[in-house]
Structures are given as structure tokens and as C-alpha cells.
Specification:
By secondary structure, this protein is mostly helical. It contains seven helices and no strands. It has helices spanning 9-25, 32-38, 43-54, 58-76, 81-87, 93-104, 108-115. Helix 1 crosses helix 3 and helix 5 crosses helix 6. The longest helix has 19 residues, at 58-76.
Length: 117
Amino acid sequence: MVWDIRLSPFDRKQINMAIEYLHANYTSPISADMLALEFDMDIRRLQKGFKEKTGMTVHEYLIHYRILRAIIDLETTNLILKVIASKHGFATQSHFIELFKKRRGITPNQHRNLLRR
């Protein structure tokens, strides 16, 4: 049976605070379970609210945000990919490249090179 979860104004405030927390701590490991504990929310309410607010799951949004932050370094620095990956919370350079390509359609180096033409 599927439960209809309704979010209260308090739930919505907690979701906004969870998103702010994610933005401030995106380089650290973050999970939906951890956010639910941190903001004293039922995991289903957190997941529903996050999806409503961002259109993504907590995990998808975390990757999305990490990539957005990494793009700033790709466009404004000459840092090597390994450093950018580590700086923005990716476990390895190859994982960063894989996720970047999956979501952006090109590799991080291709993105960087397009800007330098």
C-alpha cells in the first residue's frame, strides 16, 4: 500500500534547512538517512520534500551540486581533475569523470577545452 505523505509547513522549513546544510557541507559524505537524523525528520518525509523542492533525490541533488561547484573550478582555474574531484567531494577522479559525463554529456576536460577555444 502506498501512503500519501503530506508535508507540513514545518517539514518544508526542515527541507530548506537540509538543502542549506547540503550546500555548506557538500564535500563531505551526506546521505538521506544522515539528513533525516540531523533534521529530526522521517526519511520518507525528507525524501518526498526533497523531491518536491528540487526535482531530485538527495543523492542526485548532492551529485548535481558537486558538479556545479566543480564546473566553477574547471572554468576559472587550471587545477588538475584529481584535485577538483577531491575538492568537491568525489571519491576518485574516475568517479568524477564518469558522473560528469553521464550528467553533462561530455568529460570535464572537454568542458574545459570548449571554453578555451
